[in-house]
Amino acid sequence: MKNDSILTDHLRILPPQQKALKKIDILTVEDILHYFPSRYGDTSEIKSIESLARGEAAVIFGKISGLKMKKAWKKKIPMAEGMLEDETGSIKVVWFNQPYLAKMLQDGSFVRAEGKVSERKGELYLSNPKIENIAKLPLHTGATSLFGEGNEDHYLYPVYPETRGVTSNWIFHAIQKVFKSGLLDELVDPIPESILKKYNLPTLKTALIWIHTPKNKDDALSARKRFAFEEVFFIQLEKHKSRKLWQQHDSFEISKKFSELTDFISRFPFPLTEAQKKSVNHILDDFKKGVPMARLLEGDVGSGKTAVAATASFAVISTKPKNQDFGNLQVAYMVPTEILAEQHFESFVKYFAYTGVQVGLITGSGARKFPSKINPLGATNISRSQLLKWVASGEIPILIGTHTLIQKSVKFKHLAFSIIDEQHKFGTTQRQKFRERGGVIPHLLSMTATPIPRTLALTVYGDLDLSLLDELPPGRKWPITEIVLPNTRGQVYEKIRKELRSGRQAYVICPRIDEPDPTREMALIAKSVTEEAKRLKKDVFTEFQVGVMHGKMKPGEKDEVMNDFKDGKINILVSTSVVEVGVNVPNATIIIIEGAERFGLAQLHQLRGRVMRSSHQPYCYIFSETKSGKSMDRLKALRTAKSGFELAEFDLVQRGAGELYGRKQWGLSDIGMEAIKNLKMVEAARLEAGKLIEEDPELKKYPILKNQIDEKRKQFHFE
Ligand code: ADP
Ligand code: MG
Fold first, then answer.
1. How many CB atoms within 10 Å of residue 181?
2. Fewer CB in a 10 Å sphere around the end CB: N or C, the chain?
3. Neighbours of ion ligand 2 (CB under 5 A)
4. Which pTM value belongs to this model?
5. Who has greater pLDDT, 189 or 110?
6. φ, ψ for residue 421, nearest 5 deg
7. What residues does ligand 1 touch, defined as CB less than 6 Å away?
8. 480-641 is classed in which CATH architecture?
9. What is the mean predicted confidence (pLDDT) over 155-168?
10. Torsions phi, psi of 71, nearest 5?
11. What is the CATH number that goes with domain 42-144?
């Protein structure tokens, strides 16, 4: 048996189990060794049958027999029953509505049962217990320990996440077989020994034993720590490596001074904030270095990232290609939605009109260009192919678009600068493609408003330099945030009516619906949006125009709605959380968020950002039906927190890494996310990875490590 052996070659695995294993991504020996318990049970929790009392919850190990199916006492509900027996006595076990359970268990087999002790006519019984086959009975039944030669009076046993067809117990035994094969002695630890020693982490072999069969909780914790460190360490190595590679490329040298941009900047209807100026300067410095820039611009919604991107773009397009005294270097600006693309196109047209350069727009539904030949003050629709021709010849220096920009047919003559807006909305592959088009590598500016904790930023953006817009433009009014429970809904609607009457507009955001199947999820959300809009129009805001927007609408329809909202033809826009993407309607000063407890704090904050764009006082109403005090405390943090980053940190502490907004995108496992709670660990992993790559960029001295990282990269690219 080897680490990369296919499991089915070594263990007897039935087809349904194979299917189940595939579902949880277990194919090889290594996969199952890295399938970690979600928790540990403690045999000290086991109760003997004679000690059971009515009403208590109990874990019992025993032998099951007398299994049969029948109809329940009165209501003819199908049920199954049996007798559970340990050395102290026996108790009846009953399952209502789950008669199939009797078929799945075998008479005379050992089981672990966990459930509530109930009583009927003076007789105790276990009702609807969770039940699972086990190989042997633990300790106090006289048998040897289930899990090693336990001679203490209690021990831990691992509980693995189960899936239909594969039980926790099955996984435990499969892992035991791998352990017995002697494979552990042959494993080579990918983490250099010196690092393990320095941070007091167990070796791979020890960690595997400790995580699957811990003697005590500390060992289990120590093992988890090692695997958490390992994951972040691998990511850091990968990031440092790609950063190193990236910096080996040539790039366009753009040597503009800030003073050369002031004329452009002075045409904005506002002065730049200090944070914006600082970020522009970071970018100008990077432009001069001769290596491609890779910079992340992070700033809360409304912090003015577009103006920074536009100013940097100006520096680029006012530079001529090398050895050429005509033409311009080019800029590609990719955004996640058509609405945003339109909006940025319009802003850029405004900012750049005086320079005389042309601006192009390309989306899934068409292409536009400014200025139009007929009307030099306006933009015009043109054919895609015509637009692409002008981009390829370099005549159009600025091209804004959706992910259509990644397509092969989009070719530039001198692409020197690529901007990705709301970069977290794109997959890794899309970002990679955008970043690495042929020829000389363009400078990259990635922008995001996702407020994430520092630990996570250090990990997932390890290959980027960071500029922070930590200052909102002056005069922004902070939204008055109110948490609204069902009984005050009516009053709040009246307050909103007043605002609407005075000409303001409102967003209503429908709750998030979690559903594993994305198509189904989209349909469900679309339904709830449509129904809420109907309800509001019929029962609450009869005198106003209510519009809807959701993911099932065609791009053209969405644009129409968005334009109607912008033009004030729609007063209330009921929508999914898609409007979270940087849509800019300054007159919309009210946002209602329904089912707020289902969103992460950082996401709520982002949604709230939609109404922070005007000089009118904005309002954010957090509608929640939660009865949990903890949930309420979380929501209350929205009233006091001053930035999205603060809220993200708060969520990390309160709800844990697993609940962080957008976590699916980061490609971290559950155990990797645990590391995110630990700043010291993340910093250590980052430091060690940096040192290693500095001394040995190709990891020639660490072949196993290199291998692991290549695997990891593959995973990232095919996500
Ligand atoms: P985001 O960072 O969310 O992308 P935007 O770039 O869309 O924010 O800017 C939000 C709004 O703030 C826009 O209406 C923009 O014109 C305005 N804005 C940007 N910078 C400033 C500034 N320095 N002063 C005042 N308003 C600004
Ligand atoms: Mg934006």
1. 15
2. C
3. 582
4. 0.73
5. 189
6. -95, 145
7. 270, 272-273, 276, 299, 301-307, 449, 473, 582, 584, 613
8. 3-Layer(aba) Sandwich (3.40)
9. 82
10. -100, 145
11. 2.40.50.140
